[in-house]
């Protein structure tokens, strides 16, 4: 009798799990196994495509905006990879127990230079976006500004969650105040 009860409970849990999965995919509109999505491709459109649609940009404007984002993404990816490699080298040097101070000083200087390059790239990206949006209508500029605020709010929340999980980081250290943009 006990085995039947256990089996029934396990079967109910499995059934509830399947129903919940189906509801989640139904909420998204289509699941990865939907007939018109055979390869399980991403269901949501990327944010940039949604922005282009919301701003009702011409094809020429959309291409220009995509080029700005693509160039920024590529540059930042290269800089982040270089920065990550430098941080890894610093960790490895510290892990030796007897770190070479000259080597550490050189790695630190390189890392700070890359960090400064990343900030300069962010500033240049912002200037390019400002120049791009200056050519839009006032309504489109307002919509872009709202999109940008939501994007930064989401990014800030991700950073906040990550630093809470790690127990360190800018929020936990009190260097970054929580932002509430609605």
Structure description:
The chain is mainly α. The protein folds into 2 domains: 1-44, no CATH class; 47-136, Four Helix Bundle (Hemerythrin (Met), subunit A), CATH 1.20.120.1490. It contains 5 helices and no strands. Helix 3 (59-95) runs antiparallel to helix 4 (101-134). It is flat and about 60 Å long.
Please estimate the helix content: over 70%
Number of strands: 0
Classify the oligomer: single chain
Which structural class fits the helix and strand makeup?
mainly alpha
Query: What separation lies between the terminal Cα atoms?
Result: 56 Å
Strand content: under 5%
Sheet with the most strands?
A: none
CATH architecture of the largest domain, by name, is Up-down Bundle
CATH class of the largest domain: Mainly Alpha
CATH topology of the largest domain: Four Helix Bundle (Hemerythrin (Met), subunit A)
Shape designation: flat
Summarize the structure.
It is built from 5 helices and no strands. With about 180 residues, it is mostly helical.
Provide the fold topology.
Elements: H1 2-28, H2 47-55, H3 59-95, H4 101-134, H5 138-166
Helix pairs in contact: 3-4
Features:
182 residues; mainly alpha; Four Helix Bundle (Hemerythrin (Met), subunit A); 2 domains; 75% helix; flat
